[in-house]
Amino acid sequence: MGIAYRMPASLIEWLYRILSVVLLMTAPVFGRITYTLSFEDRAEHYVTVDLEVDGLRGREYQDFRMAVWTPGSYLIREFSRNVVDLTARGAIRELPVTKVNKNTWRVELNRQRRIFIRYKVYAFQPDHRASFVDDDGAMINGANVFVYPDGMESQESLVVINKPRSWGQVTSALPWVGGRSPVFRAASYDVLVDSPIMMGNHTVLDFEVSGVSHRYAISGEGNYDPDRLLTDTGKIIQEIHDIFGSVPYQDYTIFLQLRDKRCGGLEHLNSTHLITSRWTFSSEETYQRYLRLVAHEVFHAYNGKRIRPESLGPFDYDRENYTPLLWMVEGFTSYYDRLLLRRADLLMVEDYLDQLAGSIKELESTPGRHRQTLQQASFDAWIKHYRPDENSPGTTISYYTKGSLVALALDLTIRAATDGGRGLDDVFRLLWQDYLATRGNYSYENFRAACDSVARRPLDDVFQYVTTTAEMDWQPVLEPFGLMLVRGYISPGDTARAYYGFRTREEDGRLVITRIDHDTPATRAGLSVHDELISIDNYRLLGASAERILASRSQDKAATLVVNRDGIMSTFTIRPTPPPYDMVSIVKVEPPTEQQERLYTGWLQVPWE
Fold first, then answer.
1. Rg (Cα) of the chain, in Å, rounded?
2. Which end is more exposed in the chain, N or C (fewer Cβ atoms within 10 Å of the end residue's Cβ)?
3. Which residues pair with 134 in a beta bridge?
4. Residue 442 forms beta bridges with which residues?
5. Domain span(s) for CATH 1.10.390.10 in the chain
6. Cβ atoms of residues 484 and 475 within 8 Å
């Protein structure tokens, strides 16, 4: 199990572990792989990697590759750009090394069966998908540090940590073997890159859920309350375990880096790596967002890391791994990250419904929903989701947002179809049991069949929102629960506001268009992103008054707009229209029927009040 590196309590246990390391390091195992990490150049943010590979037979050369992406983050990140000074040697002399492509080094073996590779990796990106090294410690994410011998991805490897004396401890999700220097074992390259390592003088907080060891490894100063953090995190994880009925790991580590402003998280097999502001815990709103992040990433231990689509494991680290099912991996997890807080009594019902309404508004404010399906958004994540530009809102959707709304619709539709007897939990339990029986990945057809089976009827009315751009109809979804969707305006006076269809940002005192929605007054007038707005109807558009002046123009009446486009002044005629709604809420219908009240209570686990 992954634990903080500490002296074992028993001398006998300590000697046993030393002996096991010696045996592992000397046994003539075919293809034995050992990585040693050291940090002599930590002030310059380098980690030095010494890689020993033994048991190479019957080949002229051996290729070594660096992953180009990391699982859970669907973007080619070109990690090899940070590798420097790669050399190779045999027992006596250096071996020739040739770079054969962007992430592959070829070593001529010259009949050597045991070779040593040394290289350095620049690691100074405080990000949950990257690695970071400085004088105070290190956070290692394997995909961007460990090159691997091509063809040996399924082989076991050891990781030896040579840390500075000033770094008090090492924590990893990898099983600890022992030794004077910490030594960890990875069952395969997949496991190696899926198991972060934290080094330094971080805080380790141990807690237990479902009889299983969990821990926080917290790097950085922050204003968190340890007791509250462990209690609330434990409640969330218990809710997750209760859904599936068993625990998928022997222990679990939450690596938490507290920094000034950054926020994000990445799931791993038996751990998660989170980054959040050190001041996150100062308000209920920001603390609740953090707990949602915890719920999201821990839920991935089931949905994504074990229950996973075809093509997402075993991974090809050389190129994109395409799937049309990220809406299920990420979107359904996003649905549960809020619902878990509600079940753990960490989120009030009113706030929960407001957040669901906010997601509906977000989707309905995205013109791209008319152009891109959920399946397309998932497949194109590699080139679109992580690379947004000014054209993205009109052509793409978030598979997180719409996926979470499809999960909501599916959960409520199943509950209504079975009179509250079943729900989305039962779908996940079915998928989990199938995984435990087969250890296989699922297809879209498998997932559809599981949902239809739980609902005891075909769910075409919901799955059309996955395969087409049909507008989501919330009335039949919410009505059985005594709820309805209301669209309107935050302020009654907003209905008289002029609407143009563009969004702006002030840049060095200039009012610049940053987004234009499809089929709006702005597109009909011929405006473009990057146009600087100068005046409208001879009124100068500057500073705080600009928004007020634009909003005051008459609806459906032509206005004259002067813009600066690439240094040339141009005049356009624009006819603003009434604005689209800016508020969505989910409200109760009074009085509820007996069935509505029962379904509502079963879903939200609170009585109708």
1. 28
2. C
3. 137
4. 309
5. 302-467
6. yes
Look at the pTM and tell me if it is higher than 0.85.
yes
* CA atoms lying within 13 Å on the CB side of residue 105: 23
Outline which parts of the chain fall under CATH 3.30.2010. 202-238+246-283
Pairing of strands 46-54, 169-172: unpaired
In order of 71, 329, 333, 430, the CA distances from 439 in angstroms are 18, 17, 20, 13
CA–centroid distance for 279 within its chain: 21
Alpha helical stretches, state H, 308-348: 326, 332-343
Exposure on the CB side of residue 132, measured as CA atoms within 13 A: 15
Q: How far, in Å, CA of 267 to CA of 431, rounded?
A: 19
Closest residue by Cα to residue 147 from 121, 172, 124, 122: 121
What is the predicted pLDDT for the residue at 9?
37
In the chain, residues under CATH classification 2.30.42.10 are 492-574
Give the per-residue pLDDT at 492: 81
Full DSSP string of 519-539: SSHHHHHT--TTPEEEEETTE
Could you tell me which CATH number the domain at 302-467 has?
1.10.390.10
Would you say how long the chain is, in residues? Answer: 609
Parts of the chain with a pLDDT under 70:
1-31
CB within 8 Å of 325: residues ≥ 6 apart = 309, 310, 375, 378, 444, 447
What residues are paired with 161 via a beta bridge? 37
Per-residue pLDDT at 4? 40
DSSP 247-294: -S-SEEEEEEEEESS--EEEE-SSEEEEEEETTGGGSHHHHHHHHHHH
Tokens of 527: 């405006």
- DSSP line for 400-453: HHHHHHHHHHHHHHHHHHTTTS--HHHHHHHHHHHHHHH---B-HHHHHHHHHH
CATH node for 11-201:
2.60.40.3650
List beta partners, residue 499.
577
pLDDT tens track for 92-119: 899 999 999 999 999 999 999 999 999 9
Euclidean distance between CA atoms 210 and 241, whole angstroms: 8
Q: What are phi and psi of 430, to 5 degrees?
A: -65, -45
Tell me the C-alpha distance between 279 and 438, whole Å: 44
Q: Which CATH architecture has domain 492-574?
A: Roll (2.30)
Q: What share of the chain is helix, strand, coil (3-state, %, to 5)?
A: 35, 25, 40
Protein fold of 202-238+246-283:
Zincin-like (3.30.2010)
Q: Which residues contact 389 (CB under 8 A, 6 or more apart)?
A: none
pLDDT reported for residue 3: 37
Question: Is the separation of the CB atoms in 302 and 240 below 8 Å?
Answer: yes
Looking at the chain, the number of H-run helices and the number of E-run strands are: 17, 28
